């Protein structure tokens, strides 16, 4: 396992073509976390763009991606003064595993919002939260430092709250300073909110769209996940990410399959 910066670094091998050795430190079981994969795609998209930040990402996850060699292909769609867009594909074993339409732009770190209609996620102080790590250890839980609001973790004790909501603090365990690609990881770092509705096991994301809203300040990120509907084997999850300056820095929405029970 390497640090986040090294684990998401892509090597340019040609025009719009990159290679990477995907890091097992971001796996949950055998499957690599979708936020980690989106961070990898964002690195390539920004490298191929005249702009500095992944403003909007709409990612389709076609199949399980595992640790090991992979390629990233960046196919530009438009390049403008304020925004550029590209279709970015992660390929493993000669098959596309993730496709993402990524729009890049450059945000001003000093910009103040003209309007802010939402309040920060109500996460208790870090010291009052739970550092939950699976007993088996390794993988994703060893790469991210997450402290969970105990009131949203009843499913751990077999007492799901009935409310599809999970709140937590997030940072990298290796001390890597939070950046734009960290936000891609943060929006998909929470356990599935459907666990609080009695679902069990791993929930495969089918499609996830996330937006970067501001350059994050250093320090912990507050992450708040909610859901609106679980029906016919599908559930939605919305996530807001707030920085230490009290700013909304990222937001996402995904559609996923109900977690599959462990055998």
Automatic annotation (TrEMBL):
Q: Which organism is it from?
A: Actinomadura monticuli
The cross-references to Gene3D superfamilies, in alphabetical order and at most eight, read: Acyl-CoA thioesterase, double hotdog domain (2.40.160.210)
Instruction: Report the protein name in the record.
Output: Thioesterase family protein
Superkingdom assignment: Bacteria
InterPro entries in the record, alphabetically? ACOT8-like_C, Acyl-CoA_hotdog, HotDog_dom_sf, Sec_Metab_Biosynth-Assoc, TesB_ACOT8-like_N
Where the record annotates domain Acyl-CoA thioesterase-like C-terminal, the positions are: 127-258
Q: State one Pfam family annotation.
A: 4HBT_3
The record lists the membrane-crossing segments as: none
Can you give the residue ranges of the Acyl-CoA thioesterase-like N-terminal HotDog domain?
Answer: 26-104
């Amino acid at each position: 396992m390497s640090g986040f910066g090294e684990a998401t670094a892509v090597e340019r091998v040609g025009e719009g073509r990159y290679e990477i050795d995907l890091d097992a430190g971001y796996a949950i079981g055998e499957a690599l976390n979708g936020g980690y994969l989106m961070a990898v795609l964002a690195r390539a998209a920004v490298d191929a763009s005249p702009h500095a930040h992944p403003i909007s990402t709409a990612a389709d996850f076609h199949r399980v991606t595992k640790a090991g060699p992979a390629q990233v292909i960046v196919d530009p769609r438009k390049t403008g003064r304020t925004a550029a867009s590209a279709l970015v594909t992660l390929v493993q074993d000669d098959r596309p595993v993730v496709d993402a339409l990524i729009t890049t732009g450059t945000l001003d770190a000093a910009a103040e919002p003209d309007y802010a209609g939402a309040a920060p996620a109500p996460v208790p102080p870090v010291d009052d939260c739970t550092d939950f790590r699976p007993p088996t250890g390794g993988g994703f839980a060893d790469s991210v430092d997450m402290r969970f609001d105990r009131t949203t973790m009843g499913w751990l004790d077999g007492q799901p709250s009935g409310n599809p909501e999970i709140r937590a603090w997030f940072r990298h365990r290796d001390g890597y300073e939070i950046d734009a690609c960290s936000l891609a990881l943060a929006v998909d770092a929470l356990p599935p909110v459907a666990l609080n509705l009695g679902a069990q096991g791993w929930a495969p994301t089918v499609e996830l769209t996330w937006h970067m809203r501001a350059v994050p300040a250093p320090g912990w990120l507050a992450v708040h996940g909610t859901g609106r509907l679980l029906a016919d084997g599908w559930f939605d999850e919305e996530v807001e990410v707030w920085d230490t300056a009290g700013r909304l820095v990222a937001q996402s929405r995904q559609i996923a399959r109900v977690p599959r029970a462990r055998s």
